[in-house]
Amino acid sequence: MTQRADLGLNDRASGPGRLEDVEFDNALAWGGRFGRFFDAVPFLGVGVDYFHFTPYLGPQSARFNGCIFPDGCGNSGKGGPGSFDITVNSISVDLMLRLPLLKSVEAPQGRVQPYLTVGPPLFITSITPRNTQSFKNQDGDTDFSFGLKAGGGVAVQIFKNLMLFGEYRFTHVSPDVELRDANLSRVRLGTDLDTHSALVGLSVRW
């Protein structure tokens, strides 16, 4: 779930404007992670994480300030951005902390492992206009920027080297792209993507 956020638009012809509190669709998220906990400090580890989600921005009516083509300029009013495909990929090197519980000979690191993970991901965010009167002739663009990611969960051993986990994850990134058309008209578009994700999966450990 991606939180509501303002959508900033800066058209070179009509000037800057802002659509307030736009809503993003909920979307599936998936990814993968591999890493290692240190033998000398078994509660501490590092991992490389890949994460993908698509918070689609659908047609809607939102309050705007400034100038929004083709609705014009004004202190306030109602306008719509149309719809945009948004694809977010991230990769990060994470610090991982775990608490081994219910240790045994068969599970020396614990059958139950609450854990925390945090890292500064590189986000690769592509934004492409769809079904929008304002930007129907513009091409999409891709933003590369660093953001924030933090999560926590619980992993439970179900077989000798296999664990089932559930994780909550928060990510933040502020993409800023430039949409262009064949006439070299340019519009800058920026927003905040603050996303809450619930993840489940399997972890192979050895």
Task: Give the structure's gist in a few sentences.
It is built from no helices and 15 strands. The protein is an all-beta fold and 206 residues long.
What would your notes on this structure say?
The chain has strands spanning 5-11, 15-22, 29-37, 44-53, 62-68, 72-79, 83-98, 112-119, 122-130, 141-146, 148-159, 162-173, 176-180, 186-191, 193-204. The protein is an all-beta fold and 206 residues long. The strands form two sheets. Strands 3, 4, 7, 8, 9, 10, 11, 12 and 15 form a nine-stranded antiparallel beta sheet that branches. The chain is elongated, with a radius of gyration of 21 Å. Strand 13 and strand 14 (186-191) form a beta hairpin.
Distance N to C terminus: 33 Å
Shape: elongated
Structural class comes to mainly beta
Average of pLDDT: 87
Oligomer: single chain
Largest sheet: 9 strands, antiparallel
Question: What is the strand tally?
Answer: 15
Identify low-pLDDT runs. none
Q: How large, in whole angstroms, is the Cα Rg?
A: 21 Å
| Percent strand | over 45%
Q: Kindly state the percentage of residues in helix.
A: under 10%
Spell out the helices and strands N to C: EEEEEEEEEEEEEEE
The helix tally amounts to 0
